[in-house]
Amino acid sequence: MKWIDGTDFGYYALCPESHVAGWDGSEFWDCTGFTDAFENYVGRAVLPGPGDVLVLGGEALPATYLDHRMTFVRKCAAEDDSGLENAVDQATGSDDWTDAFEISLGGNYRLMDCMVAGDDVADSDTIRIHIPEGRYLVQSLFIKAFPDDQFMLERLVRI
């Protein structure tokens, strides 16, 4: 499981791969702001060109993506990730997920620090993600995978 821990500003953007090279780091602040946001954990910004951009934020936490679960994970307080996938599987059926907002996504993306220019982004500082074209409901859930391990989850549910 690949983790990135490269945001100094507390926000990761799910940037379309076709826009990474031209990304200069100011897009996030130049947009009209979050059109939708759930507390400080996840938001949707609309940018000229890429359109809907999913933004994970609030704190500068390590992040990963579990593609077969379409779930973004951030470590809030955890020593390691052993057993994380099992904990996410158990959480899948939970009624505690909170609906955040709807978003249109599709194609190849890079999860990256939203404030770093695309020319300065190394592959090791991003996670490549493919999302099938569609409209999704973003849901959030905070889990304790183990007594002292806490994770924030955001999942995409096709609607």
Lay out the secondary structure.
Elements: E1 12-16, H1 17-20, H2 27-30, E2 34-38, E3 42-47, E4 51-56, E5 63-66, E6 71-77, H3 84-92, E7 98-113, E8 127-146, E9 149-158
What does this protein look like?
This protein has 159 residues and is mainly beta. The protein has one domain. It is 11% helix and 50% strand. It has three helices and nine strands; from the N terminus they run E-H-H-E-E-E-E-E-H-E-E-E. A nine-stranded antiparallel sheet has the order 2-3-4-1-7-8-9-6-5. A hairpin with a 3-residue loop joins strand 3 and strand 4. The chain is globular. It starts with 11 loop residues before the first strand and ends with a strand. The mean pLDDT is 83.
Mean pLDDT: 83
Total beta strand runs: 9
- The overall number of domains is 1
Tell me, what's the shape? globular
Unreliable runs, pLDDT <50, ≥5 residues? Answer: none
Largest sheet data? 9 strands, antiparallel
The percentage helix is 10-25%
Number of helices: 3
- In angstroms, what is the radius of gyration? 15 Å
Q: Termini distance?
A: 27 Å
Order of helices and strands: EHHEEEEEHEEE
* Spatial strand sequence of the major β-sheet: 2-3-4-1-7-8-9-6-5
- Beta content comes to over 45%
Secondary structure class reads: mainly beta
Sum this structure up briefly.
This protein is mainly β. It has helices at residues 17-20, 27-30, 84-92, and strands at residues 12-16, 34-38, 42-47, 51-56, 63-66, 71-77, 98-113, 127-146, 149-158. It has one domain.
